[in-house]
C-alpha cells in the first residue's frame, strides 16, 4: 500500500512510488487472490519482503553492490521491520547476512499489516561524477508461501511487487510535490498521457524471486536425488534444487551462480562467513556428509633411517620404493597441512613450528598459505624432520 504514486509516469509504464529513508510505511496484506488457495494445510503463511534492484544491469551485480553498501554502512540494514507498529504478524525475522530481506508469519483469515523501513537511498548506488545524478529505482517484492506436509514454508502462493525510489528524509515529499506541479502546468492533452497520482500503491503480481523457487502445488516432494547427494557434476540448476530440497531455500539466491563442484570445494569457514554460524555449519555438514572430491590431493612419504624399511615397498623388479600416503586438503593452509601430517604419523601438531620446502640449489623456503594454494594437484613430497633448540622443523623435498 505505501504512499502516493508519482503523477509523472506515463500510462504504459509501471507506477513509481517515492519513499523517505528510514520512515515506516505500511503494507497491508489484503491480496484477495489468497482466497483462491482453499487447500492451505496450515493456519499461517509466510511472507518474505525484499528490497531489490529494478534495473537488470544492477541485478547482475547485486551481491557486489550490497557488499559495498555493507562496507560503507557497518551495522546498518537496508530493510528493517517496525515491529511495534505492525499488526497481526508473528515470528518477524531479519537475517543478519541478508540486509535487504525480512520475513514473518501471518493468518490470511485475519487483517495483517507490516510496517517496513528502507534505510538506503537511491543515489547510493549511482556512480558519482558531477553531482545531481538520478537515483536508481528499487523494487519492493513480497513472496508468500504456505507450509508443505513437512511443515516447511515452501509452497509458493503469490508474489507481488512495486517500483520505488528512496530519498533522504522529507525528500520524497518534495519530489512528489515537484512532480505534481510539473504535470499541472501541462495542457490537458499532455496530462492524458500520464497516470493519475493514487493515494496508495497497489503491488502487482509478478514472478517469484529466484531465492525462493516456486514449488509445484501438485507435488510437495522434490526429486529424491536432490535430497541425497550433491555431486561435483551437478549443474547450477541441480544445485538450486538440491538446496531447496534440503531446506536451504533461503540461500538459493546467494548461491545462484554456484555449481555442485563450487559448493563442494568450499570450506567450513567459507560457509560460516557467508551464511552465519548456525546455518553455515548446518549447510557444511549437509554438503560434506559424503566422500567428496577434495580441493587438493598431495602424497607424502616419511624419510626413515636405513634400517627402518617398513615405509618402503618392494616393486616387481625387486627394488625398494618409498610408500606414500595421500593427504586430502580442503582449506589449503599451512595449518591444515601440518595437522594432516601430524595425524598421519601420530605426532602432536603443536610441535611442528615451521614447515620448509626444498627449493633450487637445495635452499629451504618457508611454506606459506599462498604456497600451499599453489601446490599442483597430486604432487608428492619426502618428509624429514629436524629438532632445533626452540622448535621442530618439517622439511618437504
UniProtKB/TrEMBL annotation:
Location in the cell: Nucleus
State a single Gene Ontology molecular function.
DNA-binding transcription activator activity, RNA polymerase II-specific
- What range(s) does the Grh/CP2 DB domain occupy? 1-229
Is-annotated flag, keyword Nucleus?
yes
* Pfam families assigned to the protein according to its UniProt record, in alphabetical order: CP2 (PF04516), GRHL1_C (PF25416), SAM_3 (PF18016)
Query: By its UniProt entry, which Gene3D superfamilies does this protein fall under?
Result: Transcription Factor, Ets-1 (1.10.150.50)
Q: Which UniProt keywords apply?
A: DNA-binding, Nucleus, Transcription, Transcription regulation
Q: Which InterPro entries match?
A: CP2, GRHL1/CP2_C, SAM/pointed_sf, SAM_3, TF_CP2-like
Which SUPFAM superfamilies does the entry link to? SAM/Pointed domain (SSF47769)
Q: Name one GO cellular component term.
A: nucleus
The record's family statement is: Belongs to the grh/CP2 family. CP2 subfamily.
Q: Which protein, by its recorded name, is this?
A: Transcription factor CP2-like protein 1
| Phylogenetic classification of the source organism | Eukaryota, Metazoa, Chordata, Craniata, Vertebrata
Gene symbol?
A: tfcp2l1
Amino acid at each position: 500500500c505505501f504512499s502516493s504514486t508519482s503523477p509523472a509516469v506515463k500510462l504504459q509504464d509501471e507506477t513509481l512510488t517515492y519513499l523517505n529513508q528510514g520512515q515506516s510505511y505500511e503494507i497491508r496484506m489484503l491480496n484477495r487472490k489468497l482466497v483462491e488457495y482453499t487447500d492451505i494445510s496450515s493456519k499461517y503463511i509466510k511472507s518474505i519482503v525484499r528490497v531489490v534492484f529494478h534495473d537488470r544491469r544492477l541485478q547482475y551485480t547485486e551481491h557486489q553492490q550490497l557488499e559495498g553498501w555493507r562496507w560503507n554502512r557497518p551495522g546498518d540494514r537496508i530493510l528493517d521491520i517496525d515491529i511495534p507498529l505492525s499488526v497481526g504478524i508473528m515470528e518477524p525475522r531479519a537475517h543478519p547476512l541478508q540486509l535487504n530481506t525480512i520475513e514473518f508469519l501471518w493468518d490470511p483469515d485475519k487483517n495483517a499489516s507490516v510496517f517496513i523501513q528502507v534505510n538506503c537511498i537511491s543515489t547510493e548506488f549511482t556512480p558519482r561524477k558531477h553531482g545531481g545524478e538520478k537515483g536508481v529505482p528499487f523494487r519492493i517484492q513480497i513472496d508468500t508461501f504456505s507450509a508443505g506436509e513437512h511443515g516447511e514454508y515452501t509452497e509458493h502462493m503469490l508474489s507481488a511487487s512495486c517500483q520505488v525510489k528512496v530519498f533522504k528524509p522529507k525528500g520524497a515529499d518534495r519530489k512528489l510535490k515537484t512532480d505534481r506541479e510539473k504535470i499541472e502546468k501541462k495542457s490537458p492533452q499532455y496530462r492524458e498521457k500520464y497516470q493519475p497520482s493514487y493515494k496508495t500503491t497497489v503491488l502487482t503480481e509478478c514472478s517469484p524471486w529466484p531465492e525462493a523457487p516456486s514449488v509445484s502445488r501438485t507435488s510437495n516432494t522434490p526429486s529424491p536425488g536432490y535430497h541425497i547427494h550433491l555431486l561435483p557434476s551437478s549443474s547450477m540448476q541441480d544445485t538450486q534444487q538440491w538446496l531447496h530440497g534440503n531446506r536451504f531455500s533461503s540461500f538459493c539466491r546467494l548461491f545462484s551462480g554456484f555449481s555442485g563442484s563450487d559448493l563442494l570445494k568450499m570450506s567450513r569457514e567459507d560457509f560460516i562467513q557467508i551464511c552465519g554460524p548456525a546455518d553455515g555449519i548446518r549447510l557444511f555438514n549437509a554438503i560434506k556428509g559424503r566422500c567428496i572430491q577434495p580441493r587438493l590431493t598431495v602424497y607424502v612419504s616419511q624419510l626413515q633411517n636405513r634400517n627402518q624399511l617398513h615405509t618402503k615397498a618392494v616393486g616387481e623388479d625387486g627394488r625398494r620404493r618409498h610408500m606414500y600416503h595421500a593427504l586430502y586438503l580442503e582449506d589449503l593452509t599451512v595449518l591444515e597441512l601440518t595437522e594432516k601430517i601430524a595425524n598421519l604419523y601420530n605426532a602432536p601438531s603443536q610441535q611442528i613450528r615451521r614447515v620448509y620446502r626444498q627449493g633450487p640449489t637445495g635452499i629451504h623456503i618457508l611454506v606459506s598459505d599462498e604456497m600451499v594454494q599453489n601446490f599442483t594437484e597430486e604432487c608428492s613430497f619426502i618428509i624429514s624432520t629436524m629438532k632445533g633448540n626452540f622448535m621442530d622443523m618439517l622439511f618437504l623435498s
